Amino acid sequence: MSIKNKIKNYFTMDDEYEYEYVEEATETEDKAVAKKAAKNVVNLTSVQQSTSKVVLYEPRNYNEAQEIADNIVNRRAVVINLQRVENQQAKRIVDFLSGTVYAVNGDIQKLGSETFLCTPDNVEVSGSISEFFTEQDEFEKGW
């Protein structure tokens, strides 16, 4: 045997040792993958279904607008009836809630002459309500 072959054999592994090493490596990788997959398994009974809430408000003054806005920020749909509020305060409430709805990428819709629906971006509203209120109501309120 030449010196070249002796050095080559000294620094390289024999074929049979190489195959054993590869097999051991794949077995440990398979165990690691199995452990990782076991961590990702979730019991279906432990998963709680999220429920959506629609909150109804009938404010009496502008001071209640912050409480209504907090519900919108907390991703709840809000229906507001402004019949018990003076005209100027009702306009201020609608302006304030419009800004809040805009900040959360939501939507505000007029349901009636003094009723509004404010929804955050996680709520989709389909359909429409025909406008039964008269033009006189709109003119008087300034909506």
Structure description:
- This protein is of the alpha+beta class.
- A hairpin with a 4-residue loop joins strand 3 (107-110) and strand 4 (115-119).
- The chain contains 5 helices and 4 strands.
- A 4-stranded mixed beta sheet has the order 1-2-4-3, covered by helices on one side.
- The chain has helices spanning 3-11, 15-39, 65-73, 87-103, 135-141, and strands at 54-57, 77-81, 107-110, 115-119.
The gross shape turns out to be rod-shaped
Put simply, the count of helices is 5
Distance between the termini: 102 Å
Number of beta-strand segments: 4
The low-pLDDT segments are none
Oligomeric state of this protein: single chain
Main beta sheet: strand number and arrangement?
4 strands, mixed
Strand order of the largest sheet: 1-2-4-3
- The helix/strand order is HHEHEHEEH
Structural class, by secondary structure, is: alpha+beta
Percent in strands: 5-15%
| Mean pLDDT over the full residue set | 76
Round the Cα radius of gyration to an integer and report it. 34 Å
Helix content, binned percent: 40-55%
